[in-house]
Amino acid sequence: MPITYQLNLRISVPGNSPSPPLLYTDTTRSPDALYFGQVTIPDPFIAFSLRGKKYAIVSALEFGRVRKTSDFDSVLPLEEYLRRARVFWPERKIGPAEVIVLAAQDYGQRRFTVPEDFPAAIYQKLTGLGLELAIADGPLFPSREIKTPTEIAAIREGNHCSALGFAAAELILRTAKVKGRQLHHRGKILTSETLKFAIEVACLEAGAVSANTIVAGGDQACDPHERGTGPLRAQELIIIDIFPRVTRTGFHGDMTRTFLRGRANEAQRGLVDAVRSAQIAATKSIRAGVNGRFIHNLVVQEFLRRGFATRHTPKGSTGFFHSTGHGLGLAVHEMPKISGAVDCLLPENAVVTVEPGLYYPGLGGCRIEDVVQVTPTSSRLLSRYHYQWELT
User: Fold this and answer.
1) Secondary structure tally for the chain: helices H, strands E
2) Under a CB-based contact definition with an 8 Å cutoff, are residues 356 and 272 in contact?
3) Nearest-angstrom CA–CA distance, 180 and 48
4) Which of 65, 99, 155, 356 has the fewest CB atoms within 10 Å, measured from its CB?
């Protein structure tokens, strides 16, 4: 069911470009579109900005709702533009490109900036019809990186939904019966699918959708984006990564915890302790102006200090082989980055994840993830769930 996005955001035109933004997409696939109009529109629509005002061209299906509930200054009827386009190009198949060209003529605009994922076919048609398009060099709306108090509260709500998912999963793990290496729940072998279902239900009841939840045990967890399938076993590390999208706002939470049902061995305890120690060190180093590469290298050095090396082979990688963190908001992964691959200074009031991990087939994987707000002198935690991982 369509809902209205009602956060008070501020919009800026694309950085380093004199031309205004142009979008053709839907708000399910495009966080930029949701950010720009502050209303959900499930089908592709046209949106652009000119001289400080925001415009949308939508079908009759959406017209009344978008006009009443969005942040667009002017909402224009798609059907009228389609009628005019058929008259103007009687021999041409009419689509969004022709509508955009007519709208550009109406407002005396010949040049726009489009995002990197703008549809190629429409781009080709627009340039063929004489419109000048620049592709954004980076984010279309750089202001998305800096979060307002309202946005920060929305992200905190997303992480609260994540925490409810962890509570549901932990309850099942704690009450599961251990039979040898097998875990049984309600008379059946406990599986990744069972825990994911419980997590997703808990998030739904809290008003969020948890899609692509990760519950991966044993060697499955050594592939960080493996969602996990099949039986979960006692005495094995289980990575649970929950990143729900709050339906009311569109903002995400993103948290990871690692659990083990039964008694851990010393190697497993050493692995988890190293990841938690690295996460604490990274979190303490976050403040406005610090380079994300510096934070990432702290994590790498902490792992090396504890004897956990990273290796890359033709058969895959082991150790720590992903970034330490990423921005979080209307998208699960957005700017800024905390990575060894790029220099990225963290701005004040950015929101980032901190999620170091270690992965060794035969021993298992561990990742611990929290979300923080970048402040001038430190970081402020926006996620909260305990770190008691060994469930005996």
Assistant:
1) 9, 24
2) no
3) 61
4) 65
> So what's the pLDDT on residue 13?
39
Collapsed DSSP state (helix, strand, coil) of residue 283: helix
Judge whether 210 and 353 are in contact, CB under 8 Å.
Answer: no
Residues β-bridged to residue 174:
none
Residue 141 backbone zone (phi > 0: left; psi -120 to 50: alpha; other: beta): beta
One DSSP character per residue, 7-67 reads: ------PPTT-SSPBEEEE-TTT-HHHHHHHSS---S-EEEEEETTEEEEEE-HHHHHHHH
Are 158 and 253 within 8 A, CB to CB?
yes
Q: In this predicted model, what pLDDT tens digit does every residue of 134-185 receive, in sequence order? A: 999 989 999 999 999 999 999 999 999 999 999 999 999 999 999 989 999 9
C-beta of residue 112 within 8 angstroms of C-beta of residue 134: yes
**Which helix or strand (DSSP H or E) is residue 338 part of?**
strand 334-338
Give the distance between the most distant pair of CA atoms in the chain.
76
pLDDT at 377 over 80: yes
Q: Quick check: 201 pLDDT over 70?
A: yes
Q: Which domains does the chain show, CATH number per domain?
A: 22-143 (3.40.350.10), 146-391 (3.90.230.10)
Q: Which of 75, 23, 76, 19 is nearest to 50 (CA)?
A: 19
Q: How confident is the model at residue 237 (pLDDT cuts 50, 70, 90)?
A: very high
Say how many CA atoms lie within 13 Å of 280 toward its Cβ.
7
Q: Give the mean model confidence (pLDDT) for residues 9-21.
A: 55
Residue 293 has, within 13 A of its CA and on its CB side, a CA count of 6
pLDDT tens figures, 172-181: 999 999 998 9
Crossing angle of helices 96-106/120-128, nearest 10°? Answer: 50
Quick one: average pLDDT of 50-68?
97
Tokens of 310: 């990273």
- Output the DSSP codes for 297-332: HHHHHHHHHTT---EEETTEEEB--S-SEEE-SSSS
